[in-house]
């Protein structure tokens, strides 16, 4: 930009009566202007679709032809749908077991929080699974579980245990996929805790030592309280990760065997968008239920964040 | 020969655009403008075939600007909904049978019955039914292929077995193989449809083509005793241990090595399985094709022969050129060319074309043209509506693992049937 030419005429004094509308409201408007792009995109891509989903869930629609209004019939059908309950049950299993990533991540972080030669290499190796794509994780684990040549069954063979078909057996399949999901998620939690551990106050540890705290008591009473922010973030990302568990299921089992490894997000995709899915209304109804479940967690997170802020 | 004569004419027309003889009707006027084609022929061989067809069609119509978009075959299945409504091309690939129904019902495919009047109906008689919904034709076929039992001739010979002629022989063959530690059939049901192939054949052999069509059209209850008989026959094989273990973990490709390594002796599959089996090192001496044997001697034999198709979306802009292209695709000489062994390696849809000199294509052509008096089905997931297909195929897979759950499965399918149709 060209610099402004030096003005020769004396500037008129900015009297209050002559201030422009912009000048008067600048302070109030500026934040909204800065927020406007964010609000716009959030509305177009998040808020409006949420309401659209609610709306579509009241119709019977194949995504192509005319939609027929059916009221709450999609929800009524869901109430009698075994596949829906299977998916819901699997979602709960995911939520509970996925949280194991937090203590596991903490353990690895504590283990790696030391200074030995090459510690950076070890840290990056542990962090590695989080960097690679979920698709790759899924593929690697499906080979690991393969009933004919998979490493898992080779190892079980050493102990005389029979081969198990983890991904083809409806009793094991969800746990098998969660184990695969825990691998990158643990790495994520580990990195959160490693940064958290950097911020632990050495003086408090010193004080604890003087009071004869060590081992588990030191961890529980001195270290963990200081890691609370890290724990909170780890909790949030793990819960959301568990509810979004879509790619691993799609890669490893495509929801099978006979739909036993489906979760709500995958079931929604299958019903509405997959090769055989033409039921936008039913898919939207599942999405609404998933949204309500997420809403519980989101409300809890927001509430605890709000409390935190007020507590300061 | 008629074919040679017409091919020569085509060559002439290429340079001079003569409008004489057989070519007059399709090439009366020079086609101009753009022709947008969306294709799912993304695998290397089909892609080369598609590009070759477009080159030849382009030479016949030099003023036509042809734009080809090739989309991954699996992704295409979901993308077609979007582009048919939002951005329709002039020509699009799809499948015959009930798979067309959602798009036909939504008015997204153009009625091309006029194209079928006259010669085409005669030459493409074998697939006309599959292209017909509500008494009209909605596209044209370009290739189809037989299903059947592909088996290891060398393993059968080693144990003194012959191609099964009936159900009992199939089971006794199987028992011999099992006694020698070989599984009778390989299968990978991870993506479900392979199990539907078994259901198609067992049901068509037990209850016949017409019953099978009525069932996929939703006119028969799934809890019907005749359906249960089909499953009872299936259960005989399952309880013998005829299928490989852990098939739920494999795709159809991942199930191939069992046959290549001789751990399983046969595979009920479409003809497309031959290419990978050959690539894996099996020679034509080791590999045989057998028609699925009769179970109930009172019903006529019927076969699965899935047909792949071209359609004109109703939103197409250059329908003139699109129709000319469809006509060109189904012409006898083009059919011979694209379905040859170095092309698609499948069966031509035009009765005046010649089948490539390939053991399996010849046998398959024989089976479909003279040994399938009952009828020719598409495939379960093309004959039944998409939703029903999905629910049913999941049931088939569950049944193959837990045959004892049959009643629960059939109840579920029946509930789905009542909801869907």
From TrEMBL, chain A:
Key word Membrane present: yes
Primary localization class, coarse: membrane
One Pfam family of this chain: BPD_transp_1
Domain ABC transmembrane type-1: 87-303
InterPro entries (UniProt xref): ABC_transporter_permease (IPR051393), MetI-like (IPR000515), MetI-like_sf (IPR035906)
Transmembrane domains' residue ranges: 27-48, 92-113, 125-145, 172-197, 218-243, 282-303
Keyword Ribosomal protein: no
One Gene Ontology cellular component: plasma membrane
CDD domains tied to this protein: TM_PBP2
Stored PROSITE patterns: ABC_TM1
Keywords, sorted A to Z: Cell membrane, Membrane, Plasmid, Transmembrane, Transmembrane helix, Transport
PANTHER family: ABC TRANSPORTER PERMEASE PROTEIN (PTHR30193), INNER MEMBRANE ABC TRANSPORTER PERMEASE PROTEIN YCJO (PTHR30193:SF37)
Family: Belongs to the binding-protein-dependent transport system permease family.
Name of the molecule in the record: Glycerol-3-phosphate ABC transporter, permease protein UgpA
UniProtKB/TrEMBL annotation, chain B:
Leader peptide range in chain numbering: 1-24
Cross-referenced InterPro entries: Bact_solute-bd_prot1, SBP
Compartments where located: Periplasm
SUPFAM superfamilies the UniProt entry points to: Periplasmic binding protein-like II (SSF53850)
Gene Ontology CC terms, in alphabetical order: periplasmic space
Coiled coil: none
Presence of the UniProt keyword ATP-binding in the record: no
Alphabetically ordered keywords of this record: Plasmid, Signal
PANTHER family: ARABINOSE-BINDING PROTEIN-RELATED, BLR3389 PROTEIN
Family: Belongs to the bacterial solute-binding protein 1 family.
Name the record gives this protein: N-Acetyl-D-glucosamine ABC transport system, sugar-binding protein
Native source species: Limimaricola hongkongensis DSM 17492
């Amino acid at each position: 930009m060209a610099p402004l030419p030096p003005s020769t005429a004396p500037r008129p004094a900015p009297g209050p009566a002559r201030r422009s509308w912009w000048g008067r409201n600048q302070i109030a408007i500026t934040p909204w202007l800065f927020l406007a792009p964010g609000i716009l995109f959030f509305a177009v891509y998040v808020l409006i679709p949420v309401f659209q989903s609610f709306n579509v869930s009241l119709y019977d629609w194949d995504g192509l032809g005319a939609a027929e209004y059916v009221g709450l019939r999609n929800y009524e059908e869901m109430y009698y749908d075994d596949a829906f309950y299977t998916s819901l049950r699997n979602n709960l299993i995911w939520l509970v077991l996925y949280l194991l990533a937090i203590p596991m991540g903490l353990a690895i972080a504590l283990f790696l929080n030391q200074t030995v030669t090459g510690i950076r290499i070890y840290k990056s190796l542990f962090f590695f699974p989080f960097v690679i794509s979920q698709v790759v994780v899924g593929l690697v684990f499906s080979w690991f579980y393969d009933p004919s040549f998979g490493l898992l069954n080779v190892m079980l063979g050493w102990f005389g245990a029979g081969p198990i078909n983890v991904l083809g057996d409806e009793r094991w399949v969800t746990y098998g996929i969660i184990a695969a999901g825990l691998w990158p998620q643990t790495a994520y939690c580990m990195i959160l805790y490693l940064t958290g551990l950097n911020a632990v106050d050495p003086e408090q540890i010193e004080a604890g030592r003087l009071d004869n705290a060590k081992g588990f008591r030191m961890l529980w009473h001195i270290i963990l309280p200081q890691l609370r922010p890290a724990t909170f973030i780890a909790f949030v990302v793990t819960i959301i990760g568990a509810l979004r568990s879509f790619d691993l299921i799609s890669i490893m089992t495509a929801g099978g065997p006979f739909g036993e490894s489906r979760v709500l997000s995958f079931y929604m995709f299958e019903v509405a968008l997959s090769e055989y899915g033409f039921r936008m209304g039913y898919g939207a109804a599942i999405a609404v239920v998933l949204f309500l479940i997420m809403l519980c967690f989101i409300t809890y997170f927001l509430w605890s964040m709000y409390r935190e802020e007020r507590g300061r | 020969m008629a074919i040679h004569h017409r091919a020569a004419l085509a060559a002439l027309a290429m340079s001079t655009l003569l409008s004489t003889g057989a070519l007059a009707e399709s090439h009366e006027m020079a086609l101009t403008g753009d022709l947008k084609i969306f294709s799912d022929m993304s695998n290397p061989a089909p892609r080369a075939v598609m590009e070759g067809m477009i080159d030849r069609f382009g030479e016949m119509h030099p003023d036509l600007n042809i734009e080809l978009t090739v989309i991954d075959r699996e992704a295409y299945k979901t993308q077609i909904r979007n582009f048919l409504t939002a951005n329709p091309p002039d020509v699009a690939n799809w499948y015959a049978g009930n798979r067309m129904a959602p798009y036909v019902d939504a008015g997204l495919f153009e009625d091309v019955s006029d194209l079928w009047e006259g010669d085409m109906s005669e030459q493409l008689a074998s697939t006309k039914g599959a292209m017909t919904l509500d008494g009209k034709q909605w596209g044209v076929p370009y290739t189809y292929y037989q299903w059947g039992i592909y088996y290891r001739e060398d393993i059968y010979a080693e144990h003194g077995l012959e191609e099964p002629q009936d159900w009992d022989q199939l089971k006794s063959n199987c028992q011999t193989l099992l006694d020698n530690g070989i599984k009778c059939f390989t299968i990978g049901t991870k993506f479900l449809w392979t199990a539907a192939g078994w259901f198609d054949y067992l049901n068509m052999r037990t209850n016949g083509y017409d019953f099978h069509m009525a069932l996929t059209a939703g006119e028969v209850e799934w809890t019907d005793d005749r359906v249960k008989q089909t499953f009872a026959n299936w259960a005989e094989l399952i309880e013998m241990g005829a299928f490989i273990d852990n098939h739920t973990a494999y795709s159809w490709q991942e199930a191939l090595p069992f046959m290549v390594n001789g751990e399983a002796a046969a595979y009920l599959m479409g003809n497309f399985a031959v290419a990978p089996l050959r690539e894996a090192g099996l020679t034509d001496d080791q590999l045989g094709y057998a028609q699925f044997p009769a179970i109930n001697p009172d019903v006529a034999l019927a076969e699965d022969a899935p047909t792949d198709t071209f359609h004109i979306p109703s939103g197409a802009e250059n329908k003139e050129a699109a129709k000319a292209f469809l006509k060109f695709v189904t012409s006898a000489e083009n059919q011979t060319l694209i379905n040859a062994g170095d092309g698609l390696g499948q069966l031509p849809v035009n009765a005046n074309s010649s089948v490539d000199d390939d053991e399996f294509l010849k046998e398959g052509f024989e089976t479909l043209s003279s040994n399938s008096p009952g009828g020719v089905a598409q495939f379960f997931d093309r004959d039944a509506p998409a939703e029903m297909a999905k629910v049913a195929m999941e049931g088939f897979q569950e049944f193959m693992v837990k045959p004892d759950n049959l009643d629960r499965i059939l109840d579920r399918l029946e509930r789905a049937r009542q909801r869907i149709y």
